[in-house]
Structures
1.
Amino acid sequence: MSQPSAMPDAERTWMIDTLLALLQTPRPTGRTDAVMQLIGEVFDDLGVPFSLTRRGALIAELPGESPSVDRAIVVHADTVGAMVSRLKDNGRLQLISVGTFSARFAAGARVRILCDESTEFITGTILPLKASGHAFGDAVDTQPTDWDHIEVRVDRRVSSPDDLRQLGIQVGDFVALMAGPELTHDGFVVSRHLDDQAGVAVALTLAKHVADHGLRLPHRTAVMVTIAEEVGYGASTGLPAGIAEMITVDNAVCAPGLQSREDAVTVLMADLHGPYDYHLSRQLCRLADEHGIRSVRDVFRFYRSDAAAAIEAGAGTRAALVGPGVDGSHGWERTHLDSLAATYALLREWLLTPLTFGDWDAHPSGELRDFPSSHQPAPSEQWVPLSRGSDTAPGPASPGRSWPPGPDGTH
């Protein structure tokens, strides 16, 4: 096993600065223009060409030897958030969630209310309906914890719906939770929305590495930044045609019973929507082992990624997922810089290697005899003896019946 090549200090510093800038830019699903402007400016500074879809997803391209775009790295810039559903009689705001997360993790958040026409945001705090122990006693602990029992206290002198309208606040305005990032002495990053700003920062750092070193990769590679992953359809449109291998970079869930760690990169084997590509996932595991990159494998039961959206939309690509270990996802999240560095290192090694099956994967279809399974599985996978007999191979084939039947109905 070779020694892992350390992430250069300059790239590590640049990645941290980029992550902090991303985290402090509002980006709830449906209101991602500001963060996409920031990401576009980064690609412009790097000299990496990119385009935007009609809805605002970004597709950049890293140069490679292949005539077509064979690979894609997919990250999502959007995060969970909220939307104003009602202007309340007390001058506060009722919310619905944007994306899936618990109201218990929204309560206590500082927020920015993003009005339609305002050139500045209005701040506030999400509070339970019974927010003061001095006023409600033990009821503050026994009240329900759901979206019907929290509200936004707006940081302005308002006490009625009319006061809110005068400020420009309306039903349908987005409410972005402030991330409040903190970098600790031990290298932890504590913040909201590391899902998936950590993945975006890693992808941008990879693009910087390729640009700064003038690399020409074995395969042209798209870097796609989606804007609606948290509501389930991020990479369903916009992915370049003909992609052979796609790796989604997203948060790896750290929790009891799971294998993901905050100091390693996770290669996900399966999630709510089924297994990821067998060969590509295991190729990533082999690369991690060969290059001494700290990695783990995991399976998530309640998880969906851009890969699922792309496959469901008809993308004929191998798909895998890797990501830094994140504790407390969709709440107060935490990861370690070592996990981001491990994710970066694994993706860099993947970018520098040929396709998992170069001859086969270069084409969208082919003959059965050429499919990789013709030489990959162990012989025992092809035939399992019946328990009631001693046969070690299939018996003679049955001649069966001809089809379709003849004019007289006979076979």
Note: The first helix runs from residue 9 to 23.
2.
Amino acid sequence: MATVRSRIWALALLLPAFGLWGGTAYAASTTDANLAIPAAPFKAPYVPSSDSANLQEVPSTSDPAVLEMKTLRSQLDATPHSLPAAIRLAGAYVDYGRQVGDAHYAGYAEAVITPWIANPHPPVSALVTEATILQYRHQFTESRQLLQRTLTIDPANAQAWLTLATLDMVQGDYETAGKDCVQVTRSAGFQIGLACSGNLRSYVGQARQSLAILQQVETRGDQVSTSYQAWVEGLLAEVAERLGDWPLAESHYRKALTILPHDNFLLVAYADFLLDRARPKEVLSLLADHTQSDTAFLRLALAQSALHSTKTQRYIWIMAARFEALRLRGSALFGREQARFALELQHDPQTALSLALQNWHVQREPWDTRLVLEAALAAGQPQAAVEVLGFLQKHKLQDPIIEPLARELSAKLKPTGGATQ
């Protein structure tokens, strides 16, 4: 599913609408002893050598967010038939899962809201909450159905329009997203509608206009929540990256992390920025306290690899084990991350291309597009990227990394009469 920013930056009004990832692990080729990892990550149960062994880090009970969830849980237990109490608790679970990069919390949220969804006539707020959870899990079709059902009942539901607009952008349906942003303005107000349309422009060859619009939104940051401020700063960082303005992008990433220093999506997005700038040592310090997050752990593995660290193989092995655990649970959240793992750490471009294409047919954010192009080049299969190249040609995405990749693939296709960019 998908956070998020991965890059899925949600348009959040009542609940965040983020998503990431999807799940099968692949072992590296055994023909290269330096790259090989166990096909089956676990040979036998681990038995701690002492009672003091640290098995896993769990959220601290002193964490304000954890305390809030505990309080909200107690409130719902005391009033189990209270829909507002359920909505508040489900929202807290989703938000915390987004911040720490742990999809388990989406499951907790769904368990809370399920009794109302099972009702023959579910309340609108329950439908929107469930749609948000499904989007988080990358169950986009089901999420869209619930949002459309919501809007049939309540055509002016602001959160439903926001989530639907985000979903359309994630899946590359920019024409529909534009119409949805109009509805966002009508239902949620000019400020959020402006952010919606500003974000959309960054995908359709209007990055400079997107930057100008989002800067207008940024100047009104004192009128909105801190999470909204951080979201806008993150959008500005991404738009600056599309314009190749690295100092401006970094400035906005740092501003966003000043507002929400432990937000997993922000941390991972900034880590990707640092990796692209060949600054892996900074990734290690940035994510040192976030190893529980699978998305963050992958970036740590990539940083270790870039530094030619002796720890690289250990990180690869652990990452493969995590993907295997997700597969065994039937998870379908981490397609983008798996493709990148196969390409950059397992050096298996064929598998990476297959995974990247599967993922791209579900979500079409710039990173999803980039991975298809990189894998197609690495695999020597430019024809596999024809559909993606056509998508780029149609929507004119500006990106200083993606554009050269597209030109290189197009050049390889020309002699055979393939698509051109």
Note: The CA atoms of residues 222 and 396 lie 34 Å apart.
3.
Amino acid sequence: MSDTVDDMMFELPDQYREIAGQARALAEQAVPYSDRADESDSVDPDMRRLLADSGLARLAVPERFGGLLPEVDSLAITVVREALAAESAHLDSLFCMQGIGSFAIVKGGSSAVQEAWLPRVASLDAIAGLSLTEPDVGSDLKAITTTLTRDGDMLRINGRKSFITNGGDADFYSTLAVEEIDGQRAYSMVLVPADASGVSIERPHQIIAPHVLGDVIMEDVVLPADHRLGEPGKGFALVLATLSTFRVSVAGAALGLAEAALVEAVRHAAGREQFGVTLDRLGGIPAALAMSWTEIEMARALTYRAAAAAARDPRANLHLSSMAKVASTEMAGRVVDRCVQVMGRFGLVRGSRIERFYREARPMRIYEGSTEVILDSLAKQLVQRMAP
């Protein structure tokens, strides 16, 4: 992280402007494929090729494993997601999951596992996945039932992970499981290659904004001991490290989506006449457009501050990342809804960009920490800090 960046900055330093420019160029290249890819439930080959060719997937890993920067940088990830999400949720997801799915390897992988997988993540030769949630377990990860047991010099894993991004297309899954240590229930992470014997995929669900999504089923999957990620029983430390680094980037994606929706609404309002004037001068529409612009800029200020702070010290600034995630995703929901209203019946047309944005905005308030769960955690921190 550059010393010229602090959490009070209002302008991006040149390094991040260059990265953002590369991301905007990639988003423009993706335009011909966006409609198709954003309705797909498997990785779009053209999007994968464009992302690989851009080199931006190299931001997902540290420089020593083929990455672009010395360490994974929350601000860099955030500005890229802002640009990509403005054009394609599919491309945005493919980019960010390379980091989210592999970060536990960066932080806790053995040298052999790091060398085997992280350069392939950087080049997009391997697609990453993170498997935490289960059919009956969402936010309450301590209730997971997937088990990890030691089997001689090997590890054995059994369980079913559900609603896993890249499920079915990933080459590996960083997986949270429960194991018994000294008679106590403990939580550990393990790397599960997709081609390991006993791994299978089902796709029982799809969401309103189609997504590469699957259930990962592990039946007596036996793995070498060096596939353990981090120390036994310290799995939540790796989950927290991942959230601390990448949660704020969801806010970046929400910014890009909201701004793209506002562009659609402004163009429509400025070009359509009713009652002898263009819509942008009619009734409450000017206020709706101006308030949307204002809310986007408010959210951007918090998001950039939080992302810069997370790049310096992710764990110490998780509260800022969480605030930015809530503020920006809730903002995106309001802005996109206003934009649909401004566009009237044209905002309801199936297959239009604004309809796609409307569907894509809704899941942002749920994944990587729902608004309610994050607010509950923030409230507890607030009371601890300020109550007498």
Note: The beta strands are 128-131, 147-151, 154-165, 172-181, 184-193, 199-202, 213-224, 228-229, 273-274, 277-278.
4.
Amino acid sequence: MRIFYLMKKEIIEILRQKQMIFMIVVSPIFQIILFGYIATTDVKNLPVEIINISNSKYAVEIINRIKSSPLFVVKKVSSRYDNPVKNMKEGKIRAAILFRNPFDKKRNPFGFPEIEILMDGVDSNSSLIAAGYFNGIISNYLTEIMERKGVKTPIRSKSLIRYNPELKSINYMGPAIVAMLLTVIAIFLTSSSLVREKEQQTIDTLMISRLNPIEIYLGKALPMLLIGILEMFMGVIFVVLWFGIPMKGNMLELLFASMIYLTAILSIALLISTFTKTQQESMFFAWFSMITFILLSGLYTPIENIPVGLRWITYINPLQYLMKIIREIFLKGNGTEFFYKDLLALFAMGAITLSISLSIFKKSVSK
């Protein structure tokens, strides 16, 4: 029963600070909106220059299709060759498409134009995606023309996309942003809790009270756990309502996974708070830990892209497992039977970090 009074004190201490209220309520919503619109891999409004020096009617029809696509913004269409490299170097365009008459008319009896696509490769990911869109528009058009002329292609592939059929990156990034913000809030708030007691010189009062070290530890951790669950609920509701991301899985399973994850991340944060002496120090270690967790979590790049020799680091990153779980629940509607191994890994890390953190805390207060 005594632990609840300490939890009440911790919650009152947090609510008393207006900047904390802003950080807990307003800041996550603002960051979800900001990251939701910025952290996207979709290619939209790509500036394009088209040079058509061919006499082919097919070139005009392909150009019209490119113009009507919402993916590209045609800045210029020229009928004479104008070296587009200068405009690309100046950043005015990101791609250039050149149509010219075929060199070998015997091998091209239908008079299809020769097409050359020049891409700005500074942003390699966007360039690859845009080049794929260009090739898709061109190949689909040529296939249609061939079929009109009675020439059927021997093989025609058809892609069937599951779980995210519209290929919206926000459907993939939105749940991950919730997991990231859950980490940020939990680690920053918790890492400064014990340090604040040290700076305010109230830690000694706790030590001479009837509370034992375990009760003090839990009294600091449990309010942050409740705040973390609240943040998770708020983030999930917001991405579903604001961005229209469907949640196909079970909310209770996500809640269960989040609680296990928070056990691990709060233990790490309290460990930081135990061996640091000032809030500045705790914030630095919390920031360094947070950046490391996020970069190695698969938020922006797949884990498979990390070299094999360094991939083992991701296996001790709890955020990596939560990212996988929350995306599977949101997009695939998978249940516990599909990610129980990730839950076991989270549970093991939570148990280990909790034991280490609690052991070090008990030693520090017994000095």
Note: Residues 213-242 form the longest helix (30 residues).
